[in-house]
Amino acid sequence: MPAGDDPRQHPWWQHLPAEGRRQALRQRRRHRLWQALSSRRGLLLLLLLLLLAAIAALAAGGAGGMGLALLLPLALLPALAGFSYWLTWREFHR
């Protein structure tokens, strides 16, 4: 936790009972996790992890071909982005 977000840095922290301290730390962790998952980067990471978990489950279940089909968008998207960038650049520089 960054020092500014750490509830233990607050002057009244020492006056909280032990259970209140644990509850405050759990609540802060939940809040930070929710903030991270609700950001655009967090959602993209979550979707990527879900896709990779689906691929791993299919590969473990013996459906490797279907897992490969799920992996294709991850492999082809950077190539498609580069190709579209090149076409746009070429259109405006000729």
Summarize the structure.
By secondary structure, the chain is mainly α. Helix content is 76%, strand content 0%.
**What is the element string, with H for helices and E for strands?**
HHH
Give the structural class. Answer: mainly alpha
Low-confidence stretches: none
Distance between the termini: 52 Å
Tally of separate helices: 3
Q: Helix share of residues? A: over 70%
Main beta sheet strand tally, sense and closure? none
Q: Average pLDDT, to the nearest integer?
A: 81
The portion of residues forming beta strands comes to under 5%
Describe this structure in words.
It is elongated, with a radius of gyration of 23 Å. Helix 2 (40-60) crosses helix 3. The chain folds into 2 domains: 7-38; 40-92, no CATH class. It is built from 3 helices and no strands. The N and C termini lie far apart (52 Å). Helix content is 76%, strand content 0%. It is an all-alpha fold and 94 residues long.
